[in-house]
Write a structure and sequence with these properties.
The complex is a heterodimer of chains A (414) and B (399). In chain A, 8% of the residues lie in helices and 40% in strands. With 414 residues, chain A is mainly β. Chain A has a single domain, classed as 7 Propeller (Methylamine Dehydrogenase, Chain H), CATH 2.130.10.10. In chain A, the strands form six sheets. In chain A, strands 1-28-27-26-22-23-24-25 form an eight-stranded mixed sheet, with no helix packed on it. Chain A is globular. Chain A starts with a helix and ends in an 8-residue tail after the last strand. Chain B is mainly beta and 399 residues long. Chain B has one domain (34-396): YVTN repeat-like/Quinoprotein amine dehydrogenase (Methylamine Dehydrogenase, Chain H), CATH 2.130.10.10. In chain B, the strands form eight sheets. Chain B has a six-stranded mixed sheet with strand order 29-28-1-32-31-30, with no helix packed on it. Chain B has a four-stranded antiparallel sheet with strand order 2-3-4-5, with no helix packed on it. Classes of the chains: A mainly beta (414), B mainly beta (399). Chains A and B meet through helix 4, strand 13, strand 17 and helix 5 of A and strand 28 and strand 29 of B. Chain B: Keywords: Signal. Chain B: Residues 1-23 form the signal peptide. Chain A: This is SMP-30/gluconolactonase/LRE family protein.
C-alpha cells in the first residue's frame, strides 16, 4: 500500500504498546453470535503459484453476478480472476501484461483500484506501480512509466484505455454507471482525474492531498464522485456543474487522532441506496453515515469507533474494507499492515447501524488472515466478499491471497 | 562453498543492500522547517481559491513573504503576503480588482526604490497583453498595486529585472521575445529586437514543435559592472549594456546535451558574493556559472536526472540552493557547495503544516516546487508550489 517506512516503524511501535493494553480486553469484546465457520468460505486462486496479494482490486459485476479480482505477485505480474458464485468457480482469465500487450518497460506492480462494472457487463480498473522503484526511479530504465485505465469484457477481452499521468500510479477509480465516466486518483501526487472512455477524453483536476494519498474514491447514486482533502474534508466532483465542491467541515475524528491518519481520510465505504446512506470508515477508525445530496455535500453522522478499544487509542484500528448485508448490518475485518486490534489476529466485526452495537463475530490468527480489502461487494444471494491474504509464516511480507465469501444470514455451500 | 554463499555471503550482501533501500523513505525535513497553508477552498480561513494559486513569484522583505500566482486559463491571479514568524497567510489581493483579464504573475518581484517592488503580468490566451505592476506592502499588510501600463503593445511580460539602483526595469516580452527597458521615473519604454528569434530560428523551432514558453529567456541578471544577461533561442547568452543600449552575444553557449540545444533557456539566476553568476538551464537541468570578467560559461553538471532548473538562491551558509526537475515527474531541492560536497540532492521536502483545524499538524510534501526565495539575511529559504492548491514551504539555513 506504499506506506512509508518511517510511518511503519511509528505505527508498529504504537501498536506494540496498544496490543499490550488491548490483550486484557479481548474476552470482553468477543460475543456469541450465530455466525459459524459454515457462514464463511475461503476460496483460492488457481494457476498463479507466485501470487502474493490482492489490494483494493475486487469488485462485483451485477450484470453477470460475478466477482472480479486482480491478484498480483507484487512485482510485475497481475492475474485477472472471475469468481462465479452460482457455479462456485474461480477462473483465471489471463495476465494483464499479456492481455494488454504491455512491454517489459510498461511493467505494472498491481491493481490497487477497486474493480467497477458498467451496465453492459464490462469491468474497469486501473494499474499501479506499487514499489519504491515507481516513486524514485522514474526516467531510469527499470523505472515506472505510469498506470493505465483498463477495460475487460468476457466476450471481447482486455482493452488498454491509456495512461493517466506519466510516472504516476492510479490508486483508485470509480464509475458513473449512467454516463460511463471514470474517476481516478493518482499516486504519489494525488491528482484527481476525470476520464471519459467513450471520447477518450482525460482531464486532470489537480492535486488534492498531502504527503499520503487517500486510497478511496466513491460515487453516489447520481454519479457524483467523492474523495477527501488533507483536512479529511469530503471533496465532491459534482457531475452537473463539472466542478469540485469541498465540504466546509472535516469528517468526524477522535480527539488526538494524529495528522498522518487525518490526511489519509477514508479507507472503506458501503452504500445503502434504499436508505440514502453511504457508510464510511476513516483511517482514524471512525464509522460514519454519510447522507449524500444531489446538490452540495450532504449530512454526516458520527457512528463512533469501529470497535471498542478499551485503554488503547480509539483511532488505532485499521479497516480497509466494508460491506453491507441484506439485513442492513455492516461487516468489516479489522487489521492489516501491522495493525491488529487483538494480538496477531484479524477480527470480523458486525455493526448494526440502527443500534450502533458492534460485535466481533470471528477471530483469525494472521497466519490464516492478515488483511482484507473490498468495499460494497455483495452478490445476488447476499454473499459478501473480501479480498484477503494470509501470512503462513507470520514473518515478513510473505503472503498469499485468497477470497473470502461470507454470508451472515445463511450457511455457504462448500 | 555453496553453504558459505548461502549462509554467510548472501546475508551479508542483503544487509549491505538494506540501508540504502530504506533511505528511499527519507525526506528533507530539517528541524524548524514548516509549511504555510496558503490555499484551501471553502474555508472560513483567509485562503487562496483553487486553480488561482500556483506560486510563480516570490520575494521576502524582513518577516514578510510576498507572493504572486498564476491562474488557470480564464481565471485571474492573486498577490498575497505571509508572515514567517507567524507561520500564516496574512493578506490576499485578487488582481482582477486592479487589473482585469490577467492570467499570471510569473516574473518574480524586482526591487525599486523605497521598498517598492515591480512585477509583470501575462494576459489570457486570447488577450496576451501584460501590465507592469508596482507593488508594495502598506499599513496593516495591505497589498497596494499600481498599474504602470503595457510596455510592449499586445505582448505579455515574460521576464523582468530591475537594475541595482532600482531606477530601471529590463524585460522580455511574450510571445515575440523582444527586450525592453522601462525607466521608472519617466515611464519611458524602449523596445529592442536584437534578442527576439529571427525567421530562420523560428522555422527551426517549428521543426521541434516548441513554443515561446520553451525558448524565450525566463530570467535576467545584472553583473556588478551593470551588464544584463539573458538567453536567446538557439542556446545563446546575450549581454545588454544599459549605458550604450547595445547587445553582444557570448562565445560560449549554454550547456547542452547533444541535439537538445533547441531547449536551451536560462530559467534561474543567482549572483554569488564574489560577483559570479550562477544559472540554471531548463533544457537538461544543468547548473552553470558565468564569469563576468571572462564572459566564459562553465557547466557544473546536473543535480538530478530530469530536465529543468527553475529557481536558485544563496543561503547564509554560502550554499547555492535550487529547485531542479518538475512535471512530468517532480522537482527536487538541492544545494551546490563548490567548496564542499558539490551537488547534494535533498529530494522532496516534507514539512509540518499547522493551521486552525489541523492543530495537531500534518505533513506536507512538495512535489511541484517552482519558486524559491531567500530572506534578506539568508536565514530562511521560502519555496512556493505550482499546484491546483499550492502552499508555501519554508526551511531555515544554518550559519
Amino acid at each position: 500500500m506504499n506506506f512509508r517506512f518511517s510511518n511503519r516503524l511509528y505505527v508498529a511501535a504504537c501498536w506494540i504498546i496498544e496490543l499490550l493494553l488491548v490483550a486484557g480486553t479481548e474476552t470482553t469484546q468477543a460475543q456469541k453470535s450465530t455466525v459459524t465457520d459454515k457462514n464463511i468460505k475461503f476460496i483460492e486462486y488457481p494457476d498463479f503459484p507466485e501470487a502474493h496479494s490482492t489490494w483494493g482490486s475486487i469488485g462485483y459485476n451485477v450484470a453477470s453476478n460475478t466477482v472480479h479480482i486482480g491478484v498480483t505477485n507484487h512485482r510485475d505480474n497481475i492475474g485477472l480472476y472471475t469468481y462465479e458464485p452460482v457455479q462456485n468457480l474461480m477462473k483465471l482469465n489471463g495476465f494483464i501484461s499479456d492481455m494488454a500487450h504491455l512491454r517489459q518497460f510498461q511493467w505494472q506492480g498491481k491493481i490497487h483500484s477497486k474493480i467497477v462494472a458498467a451496465p453492459d457487463g464490462s469491468i474497469y480498473f486501473s494499474t499501479d506501480g506499487g514499489e519504491s522503484r515507481e516513486e524514485y526511479l522514474m526516467e531510469h530504465p527499470q523505472g515506472y512509466g505510469g498506470g493505465f485505465f483498463m477495460k475487460w469484457n468476457s466476450k471481447t477481452g482486455l482493452q488498454n484505455l491509456g495512461m493517466g499521468m506519466p510516472y504516476e500510479s492510479i490508486k483508485d477509480i470509480d464509475i458513473d454507471p449512467k454516463t460511463g465516466m471514470l474517476y481516478g486518483i493518482t499516486y504519489p501526487q494525488a491528482h484527481f482525474l476525470v476520464y471519459d472512455p467513450a471520447k477518450n477524453h482525460l482531464r486532470d483536476f489537480g492535486r488534492l492531498a498531502s504527503s499520503h494519498v487517500p486510497r478511496i474514491l466513491f460515487t453516489d447514486w447520481w454519479g457524483n464522485c467523492y474523495y477527501v482533502d488533507w483536512r479529511q474534508r469530503l471533496v465532491k466532483y459534482e457531475r452537473d456543474s463539472d466542478s469540485l465542491v469541498f465540504a466546509r467541515e472535516s469528517l468526524p475524528a477522535f480527539p488526538g487522532t494524529p495528522g498522518s491518519k487525518i490526511i489519509t481520510g477514508v479507507t472503506a465505504y458501503a452504500k445503502d441506496e434504499a436508505n440514502g446512506i453511504i457508510y464510511l470508515i476513516t483511517y482514524g477508525a471512525k464509522l460514519i453515515a454519510f447522507h449524500p445530496e444531489k446538490d452540495g455535500i450532504g449530512k454526516v453522522t458520527d457512528l463512533g469507533g469501529v470497535i471498542e478499544t478499551g485503554k488503547a487509542e480509539a483511532w488505532g484500528p485499521y479497516v480497509p474494507n466494508l460491506n453491507i448485508g441484506k439485513n442492513g448490518k455492516l461487516y468489516y475485518i479489522i487489521g492489516g499492515h501491522g495493525n491488529y486490534v487483538l494480538k496477531d489476529k484479524t477480527v470480523l466485526v458486525e455493526c448494526d447501524p440502527a443500534t450502533g452495537k458492534k460485535t466481533i463475530l470471528r477471530e483469525y490468527p494472521i497466519t490464516a488472515m492478515t488483511e482484507a480489502t473490498g468495499c460494497d461487494i455483495r452478490d445476488k444471494d447476499g454473499n459478501l466478499y473480501f479480498a484477503a491474504r494470509r501470512n503462513p509464516s507470520a514473518k515478513g511480507d510473505s503472503t498469499t491471497p485468497f477470497l473470502i465469501q461470507f454470508n451472515p444470514e445463511k450457511e455457504i455451500r462448500k | 562453498m555453496r553453504n558459505f554463499f548461502k549462509k554467510i555471503l548472501l546475508p551479508l550482501l542483503f544487509l549491505t543492500c538494506t540501508s540504502p533501500l530504506l533511505a528511499q523513505y527519507t525526506f528533507f525535513t530539517p528541524k524548524e522547517a514548516f509549511a504555510i497553508e496558503v490555499s484551501l477552498p471553502n474555508s472560513a480561513e483567509k485562503r487562496l481559491p483553487m486553480y488561482r494559486n500556483a506560486i510563480t513569484s516570490l520575494t521576502v522583505q524582513g518577516d514578510r513573504i510576498l507572493g504572486g500566482t498564476t491562474a488557470k486559463e480564464g481565471l485571474s491571479p492573486y498577490l498575497f503576503v505571509a508572515s514567517i514568524s507567524g507561520r500564516k497567510l496574512i493578506t490576499t489581493k485578487d488582481l482582477q480588482e486592479s487589473i482585469p483579464g490577467q492570467k499570471s504573475i510569473a516574473t518574480g518581484f524586482c526591487k525599486g526604490t523605497g521598498n517598492k517592488l515591480y512585477a509583470g503580468t501575462m494576459g489570457q490566451r486570447n488577450q496576451l497583453a501584460g501590465h507592469l505592476l508596482q507593488v508594495s506592502i502598506g499599513n496593516g499588510d495591505a497589498i497596494e498595486v499600481k498599474d504602470l501600463g503595457i510596455p510592449v503593445a499586445g505582448e505579455g511580460i515574460f521576464t523582468l529585472l530591475s537594475n541595482r539602483e532600482g531606477t530601471e526595469l529590463y524585460g522580455i516580452s511574450y510571445p515575440s521575445g523582444r527586450f525592453f527597458t522601462y525607466t521608472i521615473a519617466t515611464k519611458k519604454v524602449q523596445v529592442f529586437d536584437e534578442v527576439a528569434p529571427k525567421e530562420k530560428e523560428l522555422n527551426n523551432l517549428h521543426e521541434y514543435a516548441v513554443g515561446p514558453e520553451v525558448y524565450l529567456c525566463k530570467a535576467l541578471i545584472q553583473d556588478n559592472a551593470g551588464l544584463v544577461y539573458g538567453s536567446t533561442a538557439g542556446n545563446r547568452v546575450f549581454a545588454f549594456d544599459p549605458a550604450k543600449k547595445t547587445f553582444h552575444f557570448l562565445e560560449t553557449p549554454l550547456p547542452a546535451v547533444w541535439g537538445r540545444e533547441v531547449l536551451g533557456q536560462v530559467e534561474a539566476w543567482a549572483k554569488a558574493p564574489d560577483g559570479k553568476l550562477y544559472g540554471g538551464n531548463a533544457a537538461d537541468g544543468q547548473l552553470f556559472v558565468l564569469d563576468p570578467a571572462t564572459k566564459k560559461i562553465k557547466n557544473l553538471g546536473k543535480p538530478m536526472m530530469m530536465a529543468r532548473l527553475q529557481a536558485l538562491a544563496f543561503g547564509r551558509d554560502g550554499r547555492l540552493y535550487g529547485l531542479a526537475g518538475g512535471a512530468p515527474g517532480y522537482s527536487h531541492l538541492f544545494y551546490y557547495d563548490d567548496k564542499g560536497a558539490g551537488f547534494v540532492d535533498l529530494g522532496n521536502p516534507e514539512f509540518e503544516m499547522v493551521a486552525p483545524g489541523i492543530e495537531q499538524g500534518i505533513l506536507w510534501r512538495g512535489f511541484q516546487l517552482s519558486t524559491l526565495a531567500a530572506s534578506n539575511d539568508g536565514k530562511y529559504m521560502v519555496m512556493g508550489e505550482d499546484e491546483a492548491l499550492s502552499q508555501l514551504m519554508i526551511f531555515p539555513v544554518g550559519q
